[in-house]
Amino acid sequence: QLQASGGGSVQAGGSLTLSCVSSEHEFSRYVMGWFHQAPGREREFVAAISLNGARTTYADSVKDRFFITRDNIKKTVYLQMNNLKSEDTAVYYCAADLWPGYISTKGTEYDYWGQGTLVTVSS
């Protein structure tokens, strides 16, 4: 139900934009989040956005570098990643959480997951 794309290889300091398209017809009822998982590490929260896009929350490691937005007409969530660092290298997953009344940063609370897209940042 979630299809992520936009990953690739980039040099440190560069930018990438990830997209995640949903086939869910009630997309606007879901908090949307991005998580990443680096080799040998657990999945970590990156960013999330409220139903109408008015509120966002970010992991400290990406604040002021990454920006999450959504388009409820296109049923798509985006992650603009700027000033990429080698430690951002990971598989990035989008996820959907049927509105629980708050924006969750816990992956276990999300209901649907995309297949992941690989981001590789070389220094």
Verbal overview:
With 123 residues, the protein is mainly β. It has strands spanning 2-5, 8-11, 16-22, 30-37, 44-49, 56-58, 66-71, 76-81, 90-98, 112-113, 117-122. Strands 2, 4, 5, 6, 9, 10 and 11 form a seven-stranded mixed sheet that branches. Strands 1-3-8-7 form a four-stranded antiparallel sheet, with no helix packed on it. The radius of gyration is 13 Å and the shape is globular. The relative contact order is 0.33. The mean pLDDT is 96.
Overall mean pLDDT score? 96
Q: Main sheet, how many strands, which sense, barrel?
A: 7 strands, mixed
Instruction: Give the low-confidence spans.
Output: none
Task: Write down the oligomeric state.
Answer: single chain
Structure summary, number of beta strands: 11
Gyration radius, in Å: 13 Å
Q: DSSP strand (E) fraction?
A: over 45%
Helical content (DSSP H or I, runs of 4+): under 10%
Query: N-to-C SSE series?
Result: EEEEEEEEEEE
Distance from N terminus to C terminus (CA atoms, Å) equals 34 Å
Number of helices: 0
**Shape assignment:** globular
Structural class: mainly beta
Entry summary:
The chain has strands at 2-5, 8-11, 16-22, 30-37, 44-49, 56-58, 66-71, 76-81, 90-98, 112-113, 117-122.
Keywords:
single chain; about 120 residues; mainly beta; 4-stranded antiparallel β-sheet
